[in-house]
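User: I'm putting together a small comparison set for a docking exercise, and I want a reference complex before I start. The sequence is below, and the ligand is FE2/S2 (inorganic) cluster. Could you produce the 3D structure with the ligand included, as structure tokens?
Assistant: Of course. I'll restate your input first, then give the structure tokens for the complex.
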Amino acid sequence: MSVVLASRPHARRARLTVNGDTVEADIEPRTHLADFVRDDLHLTGTHLGCEHGVCGACTILLDGEPARSCLTFAAACDGADVVTIEGLDDDAVAAELRAAFTREHALQCGFCTPGMLVAARDLVLRLSEPDERRVRLGLSGNLCRCTGYAGIVRAVMAVIADRQARGETAGGHEASRMLGPVGAHCPSVEDVPASLHAVSGPESAAGTKAPPIPVDGTFSPAHRFRQTFTVAFPPEDVFALFGEVEAVAACLPGAFVEHLPAPDRIVGGLRVQLGPIRASFRGQAVIERDEAARTGRILGAGADAGGRSATQGEIRYAVTPDETTGTTSVTLDVGYTLKGPLAQFGRPGLVRDIASRLTSSFAGNLEARLAGAPATRNDVPSGLNPARLLFSLAFDRLMRGWRRLIGRDGPRS
Ligand code: FES
Ligand code: FES
């Protein structure tokens, strides 16, 4: 079958093969492949979550390789072979995976499933052994807001094992390209640190002791953002609490303090969970406080247990009275640099969005603490799992668009 789409001004003519059909179309240079297949070809099985290349919901096959269609310009795919989830209807490996997903209860909301299936199929064709570590690494670019990876990983491993038992070996091209979508940069699966292993495994990451990495006083952050919040307590109380490191850490989801080697120094870290990856950053921080100005600065550096993901950051805070309401305003100026596998989640816009939600949780905990609430166990609560936040942000954006469409928020500006 051949499809020719109507011409558009400023568009560029491109000829693609999509699910076996030749498609010739005039495509605007700015049109992403995901929008093209969904809006022009009505192949709506390709889903859009983050539109930042983070969640993997939009993963399709581009010349046989999994690729993020939200980051790919359709006009640049002239001559390419594109396969969407619809194009895998009759694919034997995809059929086996669908059955395994059903059997292993790996299907939940279905939003992430098309991208997950494309990534899973690539793994089945790539891996000759049902190796959980490799499977989890291969799926690490596909986020599931339900955090339901156990069934998905079991399904992928079962299909690999079944194929192995039938003597259908993988293509053996694992080494020709890194696992994950096109552009994945993990140098070798053998190098994957223990901290990136199974979430369901032992508490390896949280318990592993890496030597704290030194704080670089000349550090210049790659990204900066500002957060402000209000607390219904006097500024002197709020500033005093900011001086109690352990109390502040107890208010921040995932943070932990190991010890305080000096009054101005902390050794501790932060536990994070992003999709199937769990990491525990451990490091140290130096604290500066200006009692008169009620300002402070925390300069820290940390790395995960394998040292593959590393971060440096600086938080400057200012506590000021809000004369009109009698409350206290807290301003946080955050600067950070993130390196390694977890940097794929570090797009500034997303970090800011996630930080604003973490800040509001921190402010709530701080206020409860000032009101005399007892300290609670400070782990990463599921509601603050950044992967969940990511999807809730995408959902919020979707709902805002929908409300605008039906006119509840007034006309689009
Ligand atoms: S929509 Fe493309 S990676 Fe999230
Ligand atoms: S099953 Fe879709 S987000 Fe988890």
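The radius of gyration is 24 Å. The mean pLDDT is 77.
User: Thanks, that's exactly what I needed.
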